[in-house]
Specification:
single chain; alpha+beta; seven-stranded mixed sheet; 18 helices; 14 strands; about 55% helix; globular; ATP-binding
């Protein structure tokens, strides 16, 4: 097996151990306690307390120990599964422990008046910023590596080398950061003045760190769903790290109530993952003890059953028949070959997958002609395997069907050993259809691309303009302009997050609808008035004078029509007019939003209301968007027992038609 190839069997360890509901519930309680303590301290955060010299060393001595122990525990798990992502997690906690050590050594009046290593008044503050900024960034790197290299497992020797390189790299990084913050102490921007945080720290560093950490927490939880022991407690650690910085920002300086509470959050962030892993490790050890006893009992039972040979032979024959029927009903294509690669058995799924039968005695490599891997023809791998040039393997392959469609499969090949050690009876070849998984991967990649762009763009604007306001003297006119831009980009980011939350609530069935009798004409008139003049567009409502009533949730319907009108304006950049119609037709209320813009290609219509789908057109790509709006519209309207359709002509515009049920006025 290639040294970086995934092992066929899942390795049982703390990193991959699934969490159960009680474990997640306990982690939620711990997180809630941390949040509650932080919230209760908010009214008192700026109250200055006595400077307790022993408080910092007491807290950070435990923090440093916990961080290094956690790093060691994670490294021990890396030695088991040898995954690149776990190595990143090891580096994170090694970095956190090392930076915490340097932070307390350079903190004023702990070991020296201005801290050790000839530190300055800004040194420990900047180390604090680097430490808390590095935590969410490292978690983000961990997610990226986990996603990209999920099936990679290093060989033992390579894992050992990479572990050493990681250790050396982290130590050099900590050393370099310590040297910069101490040697260039007089050149460091001032983030702490007379024990108080400066605007640069609050707005230029602290708030972005809190925001980045919050986004990291949301993304990490959405990706993992706290499905493993490690991810469950990492969510709590990320939360505690975020609250640490948030409380510091509220406290405004050192030795305030907020400052002392923040140290508590540092303590929680440092020990929570370790505590969870040690607890689960103990449970795993007890379970292994039970399993060992079960194995011993099974061994005894096996020896008893072994003596009943005639009965066993009959049972084996029956089981062989069952296995053959199971193979026939399997969702995988399963083929058994002799030692030379000629087919002995193939289940019916083989013909279903590859559109032609596989005859007994046919060479496996001949049947695989036309199948491809990422780097070579698949039949070459099959020939090389049966010639014993390569070991058993697991490969992803693709082929074109008779209809011209591309199908994707995962193929695994393993030898079948004989009863005597070292003998070979044949080979087992299996194919699993993973076409749907490939489609999901494409959607996921598209999702990551969209989100990384849509979140990065407003964040860059917000951070950039805040930095300008915090570090430069600008005119009042420019200040107002910058603040307006920050507000606009914040709303954009908020709307993006709200879209995700709406979809999550709709998916989980937690979206509550408050239905009532609504005048559709009055509702649309109010909405249309709000869009008058936006982006040089005039919106005109066409409706009868008398009311038209529907049963619906007012807020959700407003969300639907604001979204459709916003899209109409967005995708008609060369036009200046939007028409909105409210009509009735045989007990149905038809609400039409018509634009005179780009129109929609015919091939895009069947995917238009799916999530994250955007028309692949350069004109539209420049406009941007996540591809969530129309899917939310569809979900909401269907919850109202209605439907939404589109009538469009490329280059002339589109009409989105929302159909609802008309009700009587009373």
């Amino acid at each position: 097996m290639n040294q970086d190839q995934a092992s066929p069997a899942t390795i049982y360890n703390l990193i991959t151990m699934k969490s159960n509901p009680s474990q997640r519930r306990f982690a939620f309680i711990i997180g809630a306690i941390v949040v509650l303590i932080s919230l209760l301290s908010v009214p008192f955060v700026r109250i200055q307390l006595v400077e307790l010299q022993a408080y910092q060393p007491a807290i950070f001595s435990t923090v440093i120990c916990f961080e290094f122990i956690t790093a060691y525990v994670i490294y021990s798990q890396f030695k088991i599964n040898r995954s690149p992502a776990v190595l990143v997690l090891f580096g994170l906690y090694l970095f956190s422990g090392g930076m915490s050590l340097v932070y307390i050594l350079t903190f004023p009046r702990v070991f020296a008046e201005n801290g050790l290593f000839h530190a300055g008044t800004q040194t420990s503050a900047w180390l604090y910023v680097i430490l808390h900024a590095g935590f969410p960034l490292a978690i983000t790197l961990y997610m990226m590596i986990e996603s990209k290299f999920a099936n990679v497992n290093y060989s033992a020797s390579k894992a050992k080398r990479l572990g050493l390189y990681t250790f050396i790299g982290v130590v050099l990084l900590i050393t370099g950061l310590t040297y910069i913050t101490t040697h260039f102490k007089n050149q460091l921007p001032i983030v702490l003045s007379q024990g108080k945080l400066t605007p640069l720290f609050i707005y230029g560093l602290g708030l972005p760190i809190v925001l980045i950490t919050l986004i990291t927490l949301i993304v990490y939880y959405k990706r993992t769903k706290a499905s493993t022991v490690t991810s469950t407690w990492l969510c709590v650690a990320i939360l505690a790290s975020m609250l640490d910085v948030a409380i510091i920002l509220c406290g405004g300086g050192r030795f305030s109530v907020g400052w002392y509470v923040a140290r508590w959050n540092t303590f929680v962030c440092a020990n929570i993952v370790l505590a969870g892993m040690i607890y689960e490790f103990t449970k795993m050890y007890l379970r292994m003890t039970e399993l060992f006893q079960q194995v011993k009992d099974s061994e005894y039972n096996y020896k008893v059953l072994l003596g009943e040979s005639q009965l066993a032979e009959r049972k084996i024959s029956e089981q062989s028949d069952i296995i053959e029927r199971m193979l026939e009903s399997s969702h995988e294509a399963i083929i058994m070959c002799d030692i030379e690669g000629r087919v002995i058995f193939a289940n019916r799924r083989v013909e279903h997958f590859f559109e032609r039968p596989l005859e007994s005695g046919e060479r496996m490599s001949s049947y695989c002609l036309g199948m491809k891997t990422a780097d070579a023809a698949f039949d070459e791998f099959i020939d090389a395997y049966f010639e014993q040039s390569i070991p058993p393997f697991r490969k992803r392959i693709s082929r074109l069907t008779l209809k011209g469609e591309t199908r994707h499969y995962e193929c695994y090949v393993n030898p079948i050993s004989g009863e005597m050690e070292g003998t070979l009876r044949g080979h087992l070849v299996g194919f699993r259809d993973r076409t749907e998984e490939e489609r999901i991967d494409e959607l996921k990649n598209e999702f990551v691309s969209i989100i990384s762009h849509e979140i990065r763009t407003p964040l860059s604007s917000i951070v950039g303009f805040i930095e300008i306001l915090a570090t430069r003297v600008v005119t009042e006119e420019k200040r107002a302009k910058y603040i307006e831009t920050i507000h606009k980009e914040s709303l954009r980011l908020s709307n993006l997050i709200n879209d995700f939350l709406d979809l999550q609530r709709l998916d989980s069935g937690r979206q509550e609808f408050h239905f009532q009798s609504l005048d559709a004409v009055l509702l649309l008139r109010e909405i249309v008035e709000q869009w008058q003049g936006k982006d040089n567009h005039e919106a005109e409502l066409h409706a009868a004078a008398e009311p038209i009533f529907v049963q619906g949730d007012e807020d959700r319907l407003k969300q639907v029509f604001h979204n459709l009108i916003s899209n109409a304006i967005k995708y008609s950049p060369g036009a200046t007019r939007i028409d909105v119609y409210v009509e009735t037709d045989n007990g149905k209320v038809l609400i039409k939003i018509q634009d005179y813009g780009l129109g929609i290609p015919a091939e895009a219509l069947d995917k238009l209301f799916t999530r994250f789908y955007r028309v692949d057109n350069s004109d539209r790509r420049k406009i941007g968007g996540t591809g969530l709006g129309l899917s939310i519209v569809k979900e909401i309207i269907e919850a109202h027992h209605g439907k939404v359709v589109v009538d469009t002509e490329l280059g002339k515009g589109s009409i989105f038609i929302v159909q609802l049920v008309e009700i009587d006025a009373d």
